[in-house]
Hints:
Elements: E1 5-6, H1 9-12, E2 25-26, E3 43-48, E4 53-60, E5 63-69, H2 82-87, E6 92-100, E7 107-115, E8 120-124, E9 127-129, H3 140-156, E10 165-174, E11 183-192, E12 210-216, H4 218-227, H5 238-248
Parallel strand pairs: 1-2, 6-11
Antiparallel strand pairs: 3-4, 4-5, 6-7, 6-9, 7-8, 7-12, 10-11
Helix pairs in contact: 4-5
Amino acid sequence: MKHSVHEDKSDYFSNQTPAGKEARLPEDCVKPTRETCLPEDCVKPLLETRFVKVFDLQYEDGKHYYDATRHSSGDIAATKNEAAFSEMFPDAVSCVVILCLPNREPLLLFSYEYRYTVGRYLLSVPAGLIDSKDKESSTRDEALINTAVRELREETGIEIKSEDKVTVINPCLFSTPGMTDESNALVCAVVHTDNLHELSQKGAVGSEKFDGFALFTKEEAAAVLRNGVDPNGHFYSVYTLAALLYFVADLWK
């Protein structure tokens, strides 16, 4: 998201943006952009598998930093110039799913998905990788929404209808840039339904494993935020945190 310079710095530090004004950054927070990307010849492959690659980023003579990635050496984030970086596709899409039911308060939808790297079922948002067909869409946002719609169908059984609303919250977020350039877009789906029994995880593919859903009211979601763990006492991912915050703050409305 691009920010313009704020004329009145006092507004930036207030709790609410004044009516009719766009939230902006103070002038002294806006820094000139300069190219800091690595030349491709400074990237050396260490490990290459179908799903994960590891590169040695030789940012200075005799100094090394290691990057776990899904990309080839010519497509990692570290080598992209500012223009390419601003237009890059994320690896995957994570979905903030809000269910609106008749005569009930809205519910935030999660699943319990098995995450092999931590050996547990974690409270998770519906998510999935962007495939090459998605990238054929006319715009990046359209590609992200197409991915979200497909993942919702596979992981929750939800079919997006004309009265539902699917929007891009953020096109590219890094969760752990200290060790990987893996990224996710964050997409919000506001779904109108009157039948929770239609929820299904039968569309799971490959190594995906699920163990049911979790539905939270705003108050229950706030409690999960305060506790820092899910109802099973397990920690959760940064994308689950983002979904909880987005829902509790009413940013979806």
